[in-house]
C-alpha cells in the first residue's frame, strides 16, 4: 500500500499540482474576495487535469497489473486527493492569516477567512468528494460527468452559504460580525467541518471500492 501511494504521488500526479496550492492560495490576499473560489480551484483545475493525466497514461491498466488489490488502488487514489485537498486548505489558511493582518479593519460582504469559514470549506470539499469519488469509480476511467456534477454541487453549496450569510442576520453576525471573535464557536464550526469531511470521504471510499470491484479492466 505504501509503495502504491508513493507511485501515485511521484508518477500519477504532475509536479505542478504540488505548486498549485501556493499559486491559488495567493488569491486569499485579495481583500474582500469570494474566498470559496480559492478552494474551488482545486475542483476546477487539479482534479479534472489529474484525471485526464491518469487516462492518458493508461494508469488504470498499469495499476491493475501490479501485485496490489483493487481496494488498495482506490485507497491510494483517495489518499492522493485528500493530501492535495489538505495542502490547498493549509496554504490558503496561511494566506488568510496574512490577509487578516494586512486588512484588520476590512468590512466583508462575503466570508472573511475565519475558522468558521474554513469549516464551511471542509464541508464543501466533503460534498465534492462523496460525489466525485463515488461516481468516478463506476468506470475508474470516465471522469467528465463526475467532475461536472461534483463541481456543480460544491458551487451550489458555496453560493448558497454566501447568500444565506448576507440575507440572514444571525449568520451574518456569526461569520462577519461579533461572532468572528468568539473562538469557541468558530473552532466548533471548523472541527464540525473537518468531521463531516472525514465521514463523507470515508463513505465515498467505501462506495468507490465496491463499484471498482465490478469494473472489468
UniProtKB/TrEMBL annotation:
One Pfam family name from the record? ABC2_membrane_5
Coiled coil (UniProt feature)? none
Keyword terms, alphabetized: Membrane, Transmembrane, Transmembrane helix
Instruction: Say yes or no: keyword DNA damage present.
Output: no
> Which residue ranges run through the membrane?
16-45, 78-103, 115-136, 143-164, 184-208
Name of the protein in question: ABC-2 transporter permease
The organism is Paenibacillus yanchengensis
Q: What is the lineage of its organism?
A: Bacteria, Bacillati, Bacillota, Bacilli, Bacillales
Amino acid at each position: 500500500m505504501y509503495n502504491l501511494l508513493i507511485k501515485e504521488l511521484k508518477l500519477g500526479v504532475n509536479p505542478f499540482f504540488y505548486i498549485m496550492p501556493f499559486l491559488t492560495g495567493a488569491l486569499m490576499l485579495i481583500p474582500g474576495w469570494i474566498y470559496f473560489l480559492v478552494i474551488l480551484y482545486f475542483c476546477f483545475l487539479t482534479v479534472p487535469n489529474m484525471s485526464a493525466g491518469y487516462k492518458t497514461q493508461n494508469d488504470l491498466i498499469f495499476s491493475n497489473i501490479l501485485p496490489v488489490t483493487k481496494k488498495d488502488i482506490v485507497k491510494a487514489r483517495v489518499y492522493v486527493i485528500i493530501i492535495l485537498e489538505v495542502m490547498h486548505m493549509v496554504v490558503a489558511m496561511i494566506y488568510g492569516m496574512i490577509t487578516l493582518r494586512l486588512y484588520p479593519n476590512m468590512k466583508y460582504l462575503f466570508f472573511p477567512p475565519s475558522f468558521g469559514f474554513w469549516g464551511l470549506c471542509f464541508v464543501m470539499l466533503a460534498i465534492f468528494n462523496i460525489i466525485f469519488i463515488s461516481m468516478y469509480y463506476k468506470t475508474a476511467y470516465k471522469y467528465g460527468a463526475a467532475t461536472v456534477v461534483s463541481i456543480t454541487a460544491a458551487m451550489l453549496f458555496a453560493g448558497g452559504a454566501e447568500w444565506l450569510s448576507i440575507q440572514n442576520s444571525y449568520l451574518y453576525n456569526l461569520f462577519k460580525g461579533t461572532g468572528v471573535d468568539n473562538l469557541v464557536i468558530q473552532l466548533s464550526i471548523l472541527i464540525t467541518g473537518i468531521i463531516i469531511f472525514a465521514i463523507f470521504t470515508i463513505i465515498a471510499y467505501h462506495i468507490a471500492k465496491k463499484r471498482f470491484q465490478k469494473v472489468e479492466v
